C-alpha cells in the first residue's frame, strides 16, 4: 500500500532509488505517458494477451477489461495509464479510484524495448492520476503470502509465483498490509459442497 497523500516529489522520495531511477530513465529514453480513453482499449487488450502469453498467467477475454473500464468511466473512477514510444504502446495500467483509495488492478507490458522501463512510467502516471482524484493511498495488491522478513530474505533468490511481482512492487515505497482475504457467500450449501469437491479434485489432477 503506497502513501500518495503528498506532492509528487515527496512520493518519489519514499521510493527505492532504483524505482525512481527507472521512472526517470523511461522519460530520458523517450517514453511518454498519458491517460488514455475508451479508444485505447483494443491496444490495451492486445497488450494484456501478449503479457499473459509471455509470463504464463491467465488473462481475461477482451470483453472483460472493456466492461471493467466502461463500468467506471462515466463516473471518472478509472484510468488507462499508457506509456508509449513514438506512438507504440509499451506498457499500460488500469487503475481505479473511490473516495480516498486507489487500486492497481491490471497491467501489461510489451516484449519490445524492455530496456526503456516503460512499466515504471505507466505506473507512475496512474499514481499521479489517482493523486489528482484525491486518493491518499494506492493499493498495488498481491505479493507472495509470507511475512515481511521472509519476503526480504527471499528477494534475490526466489523466482517462483509472485516473487518477481514483489520485487517490482516493493520499490514503490509502500507498506505490507494484510486483509481478511476473499470469502464466499454460500447461497446453496449442497451446490457449494459439490463445487468445493470439484475444485479440490481438479487441484490434485484426478
Concise overview:
This protein has 206 residues and is an alpha+beta fold.
Explained architecture:
The protein has a single domain, classed as Aminopeptidase (3-Layer(aba) Sandwich), CATH 3.40.630.30. The chain contains 8 helices and 6 strands. It is globular and about 60 Å long. The chain is an alpha+beta fold and 206 residues long. It has a 6-stranded mixed sheet. Helix 5 links the parallel strand 5 and strand 6.
Top keywords for this entry?
alpha+beta, six-stranded mixed beta sheet, 206 residues, 8 helices, Aminopeptidase
What is the CATH C-level name?
Answer: Alpha Beta
The amount of beta strand, in percent, is: 15-25%
Shape: globular
Instruction: Give the number of helices.
Output: 8
DSSP, total strands:
6
**CATH fold call:** Aminopeptidase
* Count of domains: 1
Helix content: 40-55%
| Class computed from helices, strands and strand pairing | alpha+beta
| CATH homologous superfamily label | Gcn5-related N-acetyltransferase (GNAT)
Radius of gyration: 18 Å
Terminal Cα span: 39 Å
The CATH architecture name reads 3-Layer(aba) Sandwich
Low-pLDDT parts are none
Output the strand order for the largest sheet.
1-6-5-4-3-2
Q: What sequence of helices (H) and strands (E) makes up the elements?
A: EHHEHHEEEHEHHH
Largest sheet: 6 strands, mixed
Mean pLDDT: 92
Topology overview:
Elements: E1 2-3, H1 8-13, H2 17-28, E2 32-35, H3 41-55, H4 62-73, E3 78-85, E4 88-98, E5 101-109, H5 118-132, E6 137-139, H6 148-153, H7 163-170, H8 189-204
Parallel strand pairs: 5-6
Antiparallel strand pairs: 1-6, 2-3, 3-4, 4-5
Helix pairs in contact: 2-5, 3-4
Amino acid at each position: 500500500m503506497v502513501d500518495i497523500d503528498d506532492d509528487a516529489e515527496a512520493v518519489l522520495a519514499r521510493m527505492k532509488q532504483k524505482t525512481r531511477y527507472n521512472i526517470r530513465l523511461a522519460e530520458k529514453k523517450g517514453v511518454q505517458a498519458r491517460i488514455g480513453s475508451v479508444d485505447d482499449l483494443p491496444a490495451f487488450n492486445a497488450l494484456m494477451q501478449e503479457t499473459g502469453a509471455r509470463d504464463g498467467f491467465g488473462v481475461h477475454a477482451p470483453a472483460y477489461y472493456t466492461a471493467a473500464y466502461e463500468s467506471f468511466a462515466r463516473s471518472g473512477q478509472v484510468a488507462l495509464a499508457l506509456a508509449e514510444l513514438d506512438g507504440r504502446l509499451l506498457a499500460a495500467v488500469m487503475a481505479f479510484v473511490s473516495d480516498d483509495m486507489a487500486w492497481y488492478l491490471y497491467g501489461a507490458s510489451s516484449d519490445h524495448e524492455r530496456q526503456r522501463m516503460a512499466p515504471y512510467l505507466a505506473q507512475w502516471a496512474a499514481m499521479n492520476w489517482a493523486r489528482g482524484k484525491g486518493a491518499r493511498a494506492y493499493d498495488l495488491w498481491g505479493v507472495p503470502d509470507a511475512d515481511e522478513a521472509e519476503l526480504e530474505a527471499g528477494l534475490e533468490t526466489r523466482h517462483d509465483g509472485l516473487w518477481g511481482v514483489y520485487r517490482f512492487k516493493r520499490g514503490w515505497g509502500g507498506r505490507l498490509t494484510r486483509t481478511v482475504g476473499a470469502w464466499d457467500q454460500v447461497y446453496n450449501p449442497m451446490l457449494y459442497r459439490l463445487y468445493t469437491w470439484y475444485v479440490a479434485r481438479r487441484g490434485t489432477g484426478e
